[in-house]
Amino acid sequence: MKEIQNYYYLYINSADNDSLNTNTKNLNFTLGNVLQSAPNSQQIQDAPYCYVKLKYFVLNEAPEEYTGTNTIQIRVNKPFPNSFETKRNGVDTSNILGVVPTGVVDSTNYFLEQTYSNVDYDNDYVVMGNIFNGSLNIQLTDQDGALLSNSHTLNKNYVMYLEIYFPDMDN
């Protein structure tokens, strides 16, 4: 059985960002106050890393608006010791928390829904620096790693739901 005390669930609404910015492609969130109510806060605060899984994501944007973007990458400003991505001259470490298809099939065909987590693909856990220490910066990028254009992010909120696991640090 899972050790329940080591699992946390975090619902993030882009409208609740630290600066109340309405352009959602590059936002900061302060998450450290969760430590005030966590049952094992000292263990969590001292943990150098955690496992995070993007369970759900939806952006208030219709798929037909993404003519050149078929994937949204959700990137954060924490170290990812076990994640990599290809670059022009090889492989480098990655800070991709999750990926979400936009629904674009080709330039004229789309899935007719909002941009959301695909039921056919579940993001899995990534190992990253402690999400509750310091500020969390979330960036929405396209499949090439460039920030999404303002037309996709200005006055268009997103929500995401994360599952966070802290392994038993006493073992």
What is the topology?
Layout: E1 7-13, E2 26-30, H1 41-46, E3 49-59, E4 71-76, E5 84-87, E6 90-93, E7 96-101, E8 104-106, E9 109-110, E10 115-116, E11 126-129, E12 135-141, H2 150-153, E13 158-165
Antiparallel strand pairs: 1-13, 2-12, 3-10, 3-11, 3-13, 4-7, 4-12, 5-6, 8-9
Uncertain spans, ≥5 residues at pLDDT below 50? none
Radius of gyration: 17 Å
Shape: globular
Helicity range: under 10%
Global mean pLDDT: 83
Number of helices: 2
What key attributes describe this structure?
4-stranded antiparallel sheet; 171 residues; globular; mainly beta; single chain; 13 strands; 5-stranded antiparallel sheet; 6% helix
What would you say this structure looks like, in words?
The structure is a single chain. The protein has helices at residues 41-46, 150-153, and strands at residues 7-13, 26-30, 49-59, 71-76, 84-87, 90-93, 96-101, 104-106, 109-110, 115-116, 126-129, 135-141, 158-165. It is mainly beta. The protein is globular.
In short:
With 171 residues, the chain is mainly beta.
